[in-house]
Amino acid sequence: MREKAQIFRDYLTEQGLKWTSQREIILDAFLRCGSHPSTEDLYLKLRKKHPNIGYATVYRTLKLFSECGIAASRDFGDGQTRYESTTGAEHHDHLICKDCGAIVEFEDPRIEQLQEEVARQHGFILLSHRHEIFGRCPLCREKAG
Amino acid sequence: MREKAQIFRDYLTEQGLKWTSQREIILDAFLRCGSHPSTEDLYLKLRKKHPNIGYATVYRTLKLFSECGIAASRDFGDGQTRYESTTGAEHHDHLICKDCGAIVEFEDPRIEQLQEEVARQHGFILLSHRHEIFGRCPLCREKAG
DNA sequence: TGTAATTTGAAATCCAATTTCAACAAAGGG
DNA sequence: CCCTTTGTTGAAATTGGATTTCAAATTACA
């Protein structure tokens, strides 16, 4: 798999878009950033070192990442769109801690297959799905006693 | 299971709230209504016969239904909160047609169990989950050829 | 380097959810 | 039945994230 940065730059070129310092900074921050940042998370994190980068630019750039395939947007129902860096690996779903918000990816081919079966039983063609398991992570379980 | 209307009235009494004509009308419309209406769906449907009932009242009343357990709110990611009449039956998830928006409920104990397993594998305590399968329903498959 | 096209950031807009507030309507006591 | 208290209602305002607008600034490339 090509470097993420390269994929993004190629995408820009191909679309007649431009490689700018803001895009470079945001890409860098996104790739270094923890998992599943929302636009706001990234904006706030960037603001420390780059107070001149606006929210709209972060928003638009994340959308570009999503368009070119180096990121994917997710909606975990907390009112914010989140972005994850794609790995090129299998499809996966998420396990989310209700206490601290930690997000763990999981994949289970058996569940995937059962979904196919459910769709078929109802005469549906399966196109996509959304599956989140909410719980309490090991750390928070410990704290809660 | 007691009548939904009775449960709601008992809840109002118990909470020192009042049984009003609007609440009666909205309850009736909700119970007759098709599956999974959003606040707006119900508001628009009601407006025909009861143009004097405001959106805010529908919104607040649906929330009361949810509080007293005769309805449950759902977020299918289409930007609107939807409400389903509870049946007292098993937990279920949803199969949604991407073309026409039809919503079909399904339940699969095998998937439920695998979720437990996934949570356990990651050291999580499972609290809840959200699972939607998006596809194309039989009718829309036919139309699409 | 000149020019056309894109980008940027601040502010405005959008849209559903939610709250505010003054007028109105139940419920219970006298 | 009237009064008072408290909850209810609907219109309008507010909230909050997503998205767009627009004038100024920047980039790509001839």
Question: Could you characterize what this model shows?
Answer:
Two copies of one chain form a homodimer. By secondary structure, the first copy, chain A, is an alpha+beta fold. Chain A is 47% helix and 21% strand. Chain A has six helices and five strands, in the order ααααββββαβα. A three-stranded mixed sheet of chain A has the order 4-3-5. A two-stranded antiparallel ribbon of chain A has the order 1-2. In chain A, strand 3 (93-97) and strand 4 (103-106) form a beta hairpin. The longest helix of chain A has 14 residues, at 55-68. The radius of gyration of chain A is 18 Å and the shape is globular. The N and C termini of chain A lie far apart (44 Å). Chain A binds chain B through residues 75, 77, 95, 97-98, 104, 106, 108, 110-111, 114-115, 118-119, 121-138, 141, and chain B through 75, 77, 95, 97-98, 104, 106, 108, 110-111, 114-115, 118-119, 121-138, 141. The first copy, chain A, binds a DNA duplex (30 and 30 nucleotides) through helix 2 and helix 4.
